[in-house]
C-alpha cells in the first residue's frame, strides 16, 4: 500500500523539492527503523535533532525526507525533500493520510486529564460491548482489539504508530475505540489529524512538570483536545477550575457538551452515594432523570470516572438503561484499587493502586481509610527521571495513612535513595509514623508484618506494572504477585484465619 507524495501531503502547507509522484511505502521517525521506500521525518527533539540522522535514513533506503530546513545531501539526488514548518504536525497528518483516516470509520473516544483516563477507557469499552459493539482500547495498560491484548511503549502512541493501530482497528471492524490522550501526546502532536467522536476531560492536578514546566502549560496541552482542531462531542468534569475553564472556552454548541461532577450544577451529578468495601451504591441525576444502581468499584474518585463514562455513553448514543446495565457489572480495572487475592491474608486487606501523583495518592488513601475498620498502612515511592517536584508533596499526602513505608518505585537512572530523600523531605510532620525500606518487596513485607486483622495496606504507584525499571534494566516485579506471596509467607501457617473475599 504505497502513497505518492501528493497523496501523503494532501492538506498540508509544504514545498516539495523533487518529484511529487514519488511513491512512499511507509513512514519513519527513527532513522534506525527506516525501511527502503520510506519517508523519514526529521524531528527536532528535546535530546537530539532528527535532521542529523537524514544521511543514516537515506543509507537505509529512505526515498523522501521531510524537513524543517533543507539538509542538502550531496549524494542523494534521487531523494525528494519536503520542507514543512513543523515536522511533528506534518508527520501526524501524513500518517492519517497514509492510512486513509481510519478514525473516521468508527467512533473514537479520547479521554484526557491527570487521573482517571485508564479507568474510564475500560468503563467505556465495557459499556460499548454491552451495547453490542466491537471495541478497541489504547492506553497505559496497553492496546486491546476485541479480547486480544498487546503491550505498547506509550500511553498514546507516536502518530505513525497510532494511525497504523487505528487502521488495524478499522480492519477488525471496531465500532467504538476508547483512547487515553496524554498531555505529552497533545503537546507533541501525536493525535493531530485524528477524528474524535467524543472527547472527555477528567481533572487536572500536579504531574509532569518536568516536561511542561508550569501548570498553565500543562493545562494548555490538555486544552488542545477541546480546541477547534479537535471538533467532537464533549464530556467535561467541572469539579475543578480547569474543567470550568475548558467549558468556558468550548466553542461547540452547548447541547453537545455533557458536564459531570459532584457539584449539583453538573448535568450528571450524584444525589446519593454509599461507599461499601466491595462496591458503591449511587443515585445519579442525569439531566433531570434519576438512576440508582450499584457498581463493583470502590472509592470516591471512581464516582467521577463512572459519571464521566455515563456522559460518554450518552454522547455515543447509548440508552441510559444500557449504560446502567454495563456499569452494574463494571470490570476490575487492572491495578486500580485492586484487592490482592491470597489464600491466607490474616484478615488484612491489601490494595494495589496506580496512584503516582499527589492527588491520586491522597484520594486513593482517603478511599481506603473510609473503608477500613482498623489502621491503614501505605507503601509507596516515586518514579525516577520524572517530575521530582511531586515527591515531597506525595510524601506529605502519604501521612494521611496511619503509617507509611517509603520505598522505590521505578528509579530508572536515578539513585533510589536520593528519590526517597526527596519524598521524606515532605514528611517532617509525620516523624515516627513512617519508615524507609528501599527494597520494594521488603517494604511490602514490612507493612504486612505491622498489620493486624481489620487493617488495610495500600501499595501505591505501580498498579498493573509487572516490572521495575532500575537503571537501564527491566526487572520482573508485580505488586499484586509480591503482596500475595508476602501475605502467604506471613499468614500461610494460620490455616484457620478467615480469608477476606472480594
Ligand atoms: C518526553 C517525550 O515524550 N519525549 C518523546 C520525544 O522525544 P525527544 O523529543 O526527546 O526525541 P529525541 O530523542 O530528541 O529525538 C529526536 C528525533 O530524532 C530521532 N532519532 C533519534 C536517535 C536516532 O538514533 N535516530 C533518530 O532518528 C528520534 O526518533 C526523534 O524523532 O519524541 C520521541 C519520538 O519522536 C518519543 O519517543 C519520546 O518519548 C519518550 C521516550 C517518553 O518517555 N515519553 C513519555 C514521558 C510519554 O510520552 N509519556 C506519556 C504518558 C504520560 C502520562 O502518563 O500521562 C505517553 O503518552 O506515553
Ligand atoms: N477521577 C480521578 N480523580 C483522582 N484520582 C483518580 C481518578 N481516577 C483514578 N484516580 C487515581 O489515579 C490512579 C490512576 O488512575 P488511571 O490509571 O485511571 O488514570 P490515568 O489518567 O490513566 O493515569 P496515567 O496518566 O498514569 O495513565 C488510580 O490508581 C487512582 O489512584
Ligand atoms: N505514565 C506515568 C506512569 C508513572 C508510573 C510510576 N510507576 C513511575 O514509574 O513513575 C508516567 O510516565 O509518569
Ligand atoms: Mg492511563
UniProtKB/TrEMBL annotation:
What is its pathway?
Cell wall biogenesis; peptidoglycan biosynthesis
Post-translational modification summary for this protein: Carboxylation is probably crucial for Mg(2+) binding and, consequently, for the gamma-phosphate positioning of ATP.
Residues annotated as binding UDP-N-acetyl-alpha-D-muramoyl-L-alanyl-D-glutamate are 31, 155-156, 182, 190
Q: Which residues form the Mur ligase central domain?
A: 111-312
State the superkingdom: Bacteria
> Which residues are annotated as modified residue N6-carboxylysine in the UniProt record?
222
Protein name listed in UniProt: UDP-N-acetylmuramoyl-L-alanyl-D-glutamate--2,6-diaminopimelate ligase
Q: Which organism is it from?
A: Enteroscipio rubneri
Taxonomy of origin reads: Bacteria, Bacillati, Actinomycetota, Coriobacteriia, Eggerthellales
Q: What gene is this protein a product of? A: murE
